[in-house]
From TrEMBL:
Residues 211-290 form the Cation efflux protein cytoplasmic domain. InterPro entries: Cation_efflux, Cation_efflux_CTD, Cation_efflux_CTD_sf, Cation_efflux_TM, Cation_efflux_TMD_sf, CDF_Transporter. The lineage of its organism: Bacteria, Pseudomonadati, Bacteroidota, Cytophagia, Cytophagales. The chain crosses the membrane at residues 12-34, 46-64, 85-106, 118-136, 181-199. Keywords: Membrane, Transmembrane, Transmembrane helix, Transport. This is Cation diffusion facilitator family transporter. It comes from Rufibacter roseus. It is a multi-pass membrane protein. Its main location: membrane.
Amino acid sequence: MPQPSATSSIRLMAYMLLLALVLLGVKFGAFFLTRSNAILTDALESIINFVTGGVALYSVYLAAKPKDQDHPYGHGKIEFLSSGLEGTLIAIAGIGIIGKSVYNLVYPQTIARIDTGMYLTFLTGGANYLAGRYLVRHGTRHSSVTLIANGKHLLSDAYSSLGLIIGLACIYFTDLLWLDSVVAIIFGSFITYTGYGLVRNSISGVMDEADHQLIERIIQVLNQRRRQNWIDLHNMRVIKYGSHLHIDCHLTLPWYFNLQESHKEVELFQETIEEELGDVVELFVHLDPCLPPLSCRLCTKSDCKVREHVFVDRVEWTLSNVIVNEKHAL
């Protein structure tokens, strides 16, 4: 059974799919009333919103499925593929919009009822803005790449609608019909760039590109909650599987700790990370014994009875020294 957070995400995406269908009808109604290329850009992007909303709904559902023998790390990677597909379709729509707008610069067409088009565009843009903000907030809370990508797409749609209204207002007050195609080209370019960004992020996730911002966040928490027994930390790697995180690292503990004591430290180490990131963390820790007297120089353990060198200085864990597969030394 999916977790409660996953169930709420699936339900949310179903509502967003229904909203996309309603807004799609409103935007195409505005286009048929006005015959404006600029409004057509908004309507075509709504087709993408609806298609990608369906893909996002399926990917969120699939990502929520539990791990199995064929997918030992879960099904979360599907979210990156969903985000990539969404970005590709957005980019294609943007290129199509630019092409049609260039054609109508050469062969202009009549525009009608611009004021009605502006009202309808304002209505749909406001709805997309509110929906996008909620999706990004919900996706960030539950570490869902798909929800965040879909939310950012809706926000970009809302911002383009705002610019579109400004452009239509200029056409309305100046009667310069060529402005319609110019506005469409500008927003077609913006849409294409948005699609490229989503594809780029998707490829980064599939290729397990290091998320330095996330690793720095983890390191900051570990520095703040650092225990004396955690002598050193290095070779940290974080891999995303949808909303789940797989973390590998090497942790140096006192060489004389028995298995039970070492296991307790690993549990405390994991609890520290989970308090910051939630229970979506799968942690694999390789334990290293300290190496006297080298480790003694940076060890802050005050009750060590076998210390072979006086404490010199504590090594502050940073992104640059934690991701390297090398023990720290002074």
